[in-house]
């Protein structure tokens, strides 16, 4: 029953949130599901982080807690009780009604700002990775659609086959699975 309920909750949350992460944690001999859910709302990216004891998800009436400031683990934990059948709606209501500390709400950045910061960080990370192999960054072409940046990084290289394989392994390990070799050029496709 626990497995079915956590899978159902995950599925229902993914219907109303853009990102859902569920992990297991332990505190003082109690086992919890630590759930983080994020969604874009009014041009901002709002997150809710909650804790639910594992045994609670086997009941029809579920006790759960969420952080009043998602970015601060020491913030007040707001205690809630929901019917399991309405748990995902109640979690969504916390975000939709913005039931958080005012400090948290004031700290939220616009989605565009977050996307641009992520894009710059990813580009710098990729260029730094390639420099480790002596691969020169030529240029980057980026398109934007629905706040998703798709970029093609163009690099020039003079690598042996064995070094090319090391570069491929490093790219994959760093989370860049889309790349193409074309003579002395390397194209890396990435998103954020």
Strand order of the largest sheet: 1-2-3-4-5
Low-confidence stretches: none
- Mean of residue pLDDT values: 85
Count of distinct structural domains? 2
Number of helices: 5
Shape: elongated
Structural class: alpha+beta
What's the Cα radius of gyration? 21 Å
Instruction: Please describe the biggest sheet, giving its number of strands, its sense, and whether it closes into a barrel.
Output: 5 strands, antiparallel
Termini gap: 36 Å
Q: How are helices and strands ordered from N to C?
A: HEEEEEHHHEEHEE
Strand tally is 9
Q: Give the DSSP E fraction (strand runs of 2 or more residues).
A: 35-45%
Helical amount: 25-40%
The oligomeric state of the chains shown is single chain
Structure explained in plain terms:
The protein has 192 residues and is of the alpha+beta class. The chain contains five helices and nine strands, in the order H-E-E-E-E-E-H-H-H-E-E-H-E-E. The protein has helices at residues 2-16, 87-96, 102-107, 111-131, 161-173, and strands spanning 19-27, 30-41, 44-53, 61-67, 77-83, 136-145, 148-156, 178-182, 185-191. A hairpin with a 2-residue loop joins strand 6 (136-145) and strand 7. The longest helix has 21 residues, at 111-131. The two termini are 36 Å apart.
